[in-house]
Amino acid sequence: MKLLLFDIDGTLLLTNGAGTRAANRAFENIYGVSEAMTKIDAAGKTDPIILQEIFMNEFNRDYSPEEAQELYKLYIPFLEEETNNSETTVMPGIPSLLESLSSREDMVLGVATGNIEQGAWIKLRSAGLDTHFKFGGFGSDSHSREHLILKAKERAKDHMNYNTDIKETFVIGDTPFDINHGRAAGAVTVGVATGSYSKTELEEHRPDHIFNDLNNLKIVLEIFE
Ligand SMILES: [Mg+2]
Q1: pLDDT of amino acid 164
Q2: Regions of the chain short of the pLDDT cut 50
Q3: Which of 8, 64, 110, 203 is the most exposed, having the fewest neighbouring CB atoms within 10 Å of its CB?
Q4: What single string gives the DSSP state of each residue in 33-56?
Q5: Distance 204 CA to ligand 1 centre (A)
Q6: CA-CA distances (angstroms) from residue 214 to 134, 165, 211?
Q7: 163: CA distance to ligand 1 center in Å?
Q8: What angle do CA 77, 51, 24 make, to 5 degrees?
Q9: Distance 195 CA to ligand 1 centre (A)
Q10: Which residues pair with 79 in a beta bridge?
């Protein structure tokens, strides 16, 4: 069995600022600071790391677990609202790629994302892509992308009732973080330049495969053979 782990933001979809607006609103609501999330370069980072950077930026200190819970409690309904009120963009080729991969008996699909789990499912639902995924590794599992990739792998085994061996894991993502942490987790890495990094920038991190986008189904499918 092959395990394919997809990053969400910039790889499967773009929420067109809904995630940023939801996080900004949560910070504004609790701390009265505006545009807290806008000031951070969040691409490829996990939610706990983003939170840490915002706290350092605004308050010059780290956050407590209670503060994170309080923020997430507001962020989740705000994210639901913001994604309902705006268009989520699905990246080129993704619907037919997922359709094709989902039908394969020798492959299992999951997500490996820095989003906390509830946020990840909201984003996937807003793009109509949630039905292709049953499990994943999330920012709520670990601040480390490497660890959440390993967590996704554990859940994949769980999902298959430990009946099948995972022969190969692929990590597909749009940032150097996906490539470097995917490699560290022992995965075959696939870079795709549909997010905020160009193909040239991603190439510097030597992914096993690299694409401008995943639109050419035939060529993309070949790398998983
Ligand atoms: Mg991404």
Answers
A1: 82
A2: none
A3: 64
A4: -SSTTTTS--TT--HHHHHHHHHH
A5: 17
A6: 21, 27, 7
A7: 31
A8: 45
A9: 7
A10: none
CA distance 74 to 69: 9
Q: Please list all protein residues whose beta carbon sits less than 5 angstroms from ligand 1, which is an ion.
A: 7, 9-10, 174
Instruction: Give all strands of the β-sheet with 136-137 in edge-to-edge order.
Output: 136-137, 107-112, 2-6, 168-173, 188-192, 209-211
Distance 147 CA to ligand 1 centre (A): 16
Q: Are residues 109 and 174 in the same domain?
A: yes
- Enclosing domain of residue 30: 18-84
Q: What is the pLDDT of residue 161?
A: 81
| Tally of domains within the chain | 2
Model confidence pLDDT, tens digit, residues 146-185: 999 999 999 999 998 877 889 999 999 999 999 999 999 9
* 213: its two tokens: 């986008």
CATH number for the domain harbouring residue 54: 1.10.150
